[in-house]
Amino acid sequence: MIDMTRFAGQKCGTLLNKLLDDSISEHLGIKLVTPLTVVLVFLLLLSVPVAGYRLLFGIGAASNLNDSWPWGLWIGFDVLGGVAMAAGAFMIAGAVYILNLKKYKCIARAAILNAFFGYLLAAISITLDVGRSFVIWHPLVMWQVNSVMFIVALHLVLYLSTLATESSPMVLEKIGWERGLNAVHRIMVGAVMFGVALSLLHQSSLGANYLIVPGKLSPLWYNKQLPYMFLVSALMMGFSMVSFETILTSKVFKHDVPHDVLVGLSKGILYTGTFYFFFKMYELLTGPGLALVFDDNLEGMMWLIEMAVGVVLPVFLLALPSVRRDKEKMFAADILVVFGVLFNRLNVSIFGVARYATRAGGDYFPSIMEFTLTIGMIAFAVLGFKLCAKYLPLFPDHQESAHPPGTASAAAPRAPE
């Protein structure tokens, strides 16, 4: 028994040493201890006691939510926004595995990892936002197939598991477990196809949640096509987030990405953004009418900001060949789209219901604890991504340095997880 314990301890120590091997990060010059890392750790540690306080004393003690405002920052930004930002994973994975567009292989792992953290934060936010957080596991065993919220919960769990599977080859390659790596590769195409279907359903089902509030949500956003609008805007956000993090990480972690990859992502933003614009305009003109936008009200101003900054301006910019040739200009357009879609989610979840909730006697502004937890979760995602970039073969340069030519892992075909 003692020998078995010693053997297991030695094995775990060996795996840990492999995971923490700095040879990969040294190849790309990634430093762990930086001022940014210190700030991220501080923000993360600051959010931990706040999360504990919320779990111990309830959502009412930690937030400014009430009966008129049951959903606030955690749902509008962390869940609706976080899931939309994760949409790039299923598009890039589907493009590489299903459509065989191999030029996007170099960004697939980072896109999937980014989505994994996005969905993980959404899961944490839902857990904190549910009144009885300690029974969050109930939907897994107490099915209610007629509830759209049950569908959302099921999609979240299944797709988070799928993203973990798609990200696992990085860990398996690092620790050198060839058998496990080959097993994952055999099921990867099926996992990607399953993930694409799940993500399409999940992005639209988040919009379907708001079909139950026709008298509360402003007609500027409420219509029967809301699930499809959530899906199309998530596609636009997905292209933008992948382009954003690709350009950013190429600078920070010093790895090269072919420019035609960024051009392809920009064209994806251009096409989906153009379709989304005409979709929104059609629903506006055949629904509440253009006059409602200019009716000197909060909703109209928010709608204009969302569309002008997040849709019209970046689509116009990316339609110019000179912008698509300039990485910095594409980066600026990506930021505009990310802002616009996040603003749309806040419009639907907060600003669009403000008039009704105020008339019902409610008022809402996020508490300090709500902001602290949101910022802490963002810090967790950024720090986690940096740790993965440092210790795992996340980028093409990583993969080459981790498995030099002639090794078993280099010789074996690898899918772009």
Automatic annotation (TrEMBL):
<feature type="transmembrane region" description="Helical">
    <location>
        <begin position="140"/>
        <end position="162"/>
    </location>
</feature>
<feature type="transmembrane region" description="Helical">
    <location>
        <begin position="364"/>
        <end position="385"/>
    </location>
</feature>
<feature type="transmembrane region" description="Helical">
    <location>
        <begin position="183"/>
        <end position="201"/>
    </location>
</feature>
<feature type="transmembrane region" description="Helical">
    <location>
        <begin position="71"/>
        <end position="99"/>
    </location>
</feature>
<keyword id="KW-0472">Membrane</keyword>
<keyword id="KW-1133">Transmembrane helix</keyword>
<feature type="transmembrane region" description="Helical">
    <location>
        <begin position="111"/>
        <end position="128"/>
    </location>
</feature>
<feature type="transmembrane region" description="Helical">
    <location>
        <begin position="261"/>
        <end position="282"/>
    </location>
</feature>
<dbReference type="GO" id="GO:0005886">
    <property type="term" value="C:plasma membrane"/>
</dbReference>
<keyword id="KW-0812">Transmembrane</keyword>
<feature type="transmembrane region" description="Helical">
    <location>
        <begin position="228"/>
        <end position="249"/>
    </location>
</feature>
<dbReference type="Pfam" id="PF03916">
    <property type="entry name" value="NrfD"/>
</dbReference>
<feature type="transmembrane region" description="Helical">
    <location>
        <begin position="335"/>
        <end position="358"/>
    </location>
</feature>
<feature type="transmembrane region" description="Helical">
    <location>
        <begin position="302"/>
        <end position="323"/>
    </location>
</feature>
<feature type="transmembrane region" description="Helical">
    <location>
        <begin position="28"/>
        <end position="51"/>
    </location>
</feature>
<comment type="similarity">
    <text>Belongs to the NrfD family.</text>
</comment>
<keyword id="KW-1003">Cell membrane</keyword>
<dbReference type="InterPro" id="IPR051817">
    <property type="entry name" value="FDH_cytochrome_b556_subunit"/>
</dbReference>
<protein>
    <submittedName>
        <fullName>Ni/Fe-hydrogenase cytochrome b subunit</fullName>
    </submittedName>
</protein>
<dbReference type="InterPro" id="IPR005614">
    <property type="entry name" value="NrfD-like"/>
</dbReference>
<dbReference type="GO" id="GO:0009061">
    <property type="term" value="P:anaerobic respiration"/>
</dbReference>
